[in-house]
Design a protein that fits this description.
Helix content: under 10%
Largest sheet: 8 strands, mixed
Distance between the termini: 45 Å
Strand content: 35-45%
Shape: globular
Number of helices: 3
Number of strands: 24
CATH superfamily: TolB, C-terminal domain
Oligomer: single chain
Low-confidence stretches: 7-120
Strand order of the largest sheet: 18-19-20-21-3-24-23-22
CATH topology: Neuraminidase
Bound molecules: calcium ion
CATH class: Mainly Beta
Mean pLDDT: 76
Structural class: mainly beta
Order of helices and strands: EHEHHEEEEEEEEEEEEEEEEEEEEEE
């Protein structure tokens, strides 16, 4: 089932009233109604994999503001649009602050070869491929997480961005929502029954019902959105720089930042993320490398060389970079894929021999 979600059409007159009320309230609550913010000029550089076209950004952007204009792009006429039965904005404001993110409930125990959080880089790890699973080769993967036995995936590119639920074994897209053309999907995470999906330059995070992908509202933030994962008490977000930003699980407000360093040098272009206990696994954009970061210190405690995966692909025609990390704490395995890759690989990550 594929639907198209246009936040401008998520409700009629009642929605407008609710939105106006929430614009007023958002100054306190930090939540905005599901209208798009200012949309930057689409830059396809990242989609086209031009490393020089992506500027590293600082987390010190302008003050976080609500949306002020509406993109002009029209959705495709033959696509089914989502019409929330209730005000998306109001349903998004009431997560239970006492709940614990489901993705971290079964946090993995230390795995063989895990590193002390304070250690300096202890060498390179390699991936051991256990299985190759089908993956939509048209999916420009920007976020991947395993929850409830299925993948949740965010895909990017203007006009083709989506959030989707994907069968782990078959790769079948079980449910999806296509974002409005003005939004470029980025990292996502599932917390407390909600899927939170970043967008690249649109300063908007969509909130979806994890069971139905019905829209529940949006968060707004400053700067770019690249990767997202959640620990027990906070989101971890990347923006293409060497800084990780920690955000409150309920309000999405910034609660801290850390600079990621390796041997004292900043490590930037941090992209898709996966939280495993107190470690953050991060794709480094435009490389086949994943860095393992101690979240509290920002220190890179290991590097994963995933370059061998390219040799495992059934086809390399048209593929883009490695991007997409999901962890299964029960099986103690990772799932790795890339943009436009025809496979997702089930792997173990071990020290290099
Ligand atoms: Ca992930």
């Amino acid at each position: 089932m594929t639907r198209r979600f246009d936040p401008r059409r998520a409700g009629g007159a009642g929605y407008i009233v609710a939105a106006l009320a929430l614009v007023f309230l958002s100054g306190c609550a930090g939540i905005s109604p599901p209208e798009p913010p200012v949309t930057a000029e689409p830059e396809q550089g990242r989609a086209d994999s031009e490393p020089t076209s992506v500027a590293s950004t600082s987390t010190t952007g302008p003050p976080e503001t609500g949306p002020v204009s509406v993109p002009e792009a029209e959705p495709e006429a033959d696509s089914k649009r989502v019409t929330p039965s209730t005000s998306a904005a109001t349903t998004a404001v009431a997560p239970d602050a006492s709940t614990i993110p489901t993705t971290t409930e079964a946090a993995a125990p230390p795995e063989p070869g895990d590193h002390p959080a304070t250690a300096e880089p202890s060498g390179t790890r390699e991936v051991l491929v256990l299985d190759a699973l089908p993956h939509d080769p048209a999916a420009f993967t920007q976020g991947l997480v395993l929850h409830g036995g299925v993948f949740y995936e965010s895909t990017g590119r203007y006009g083709a961005s989506s959030v989707r639920i994907v069968d782990r074994e078959t790769g079948e897209v079980l449910s999806s929502v296509i974002l409005d053309d003005g939004f470029f999907g980025e990292g996502l995470e599932v917390v407390d029954g909600r899927v939170v999906q970043l967008t690249w330059k649109e300063q908007t995070a969509f909130i979806w019902d994890a069971a139905t992908l019905e829209p529940l509202g949006t968060y707004t933030y400053s700067g770019e959105g690249w990767g997202l994962c959640a620990m027990e008490d906070r989101f971890v977000m990347s923006d293409g720089s060497s800084t990780l930003t920690f955000r409150d699980l309920d309000s999405f407000q910034v609660v801290g930042t850390v600079e990621v360093v390796s041997s004292g040098q900043p490590v930037d272009k941090l992209n898709e993320l996966e939280c495993v206990g107190e470690l953050v696994y991060a794709n480094v954009w435009f490389t086949d490398e994943i860095v393992v970061i101690a979240a509290d210190s920002g220190k890179v405690v290991a590097r994963v060389d995933a370059s061998s995966l390219r040799g495992e692909l059934s086809s390399i025609e048209g593929i883009d970079v490695l991007n997409g990390i999901a962890h299964d704490p029960d099986r103690r395995v990772f799932y790795l894929t890339g943009k436009l890759w025809p496979e997702i690989f089930e792997v173990r990550i071990d020290r290099a021999a």
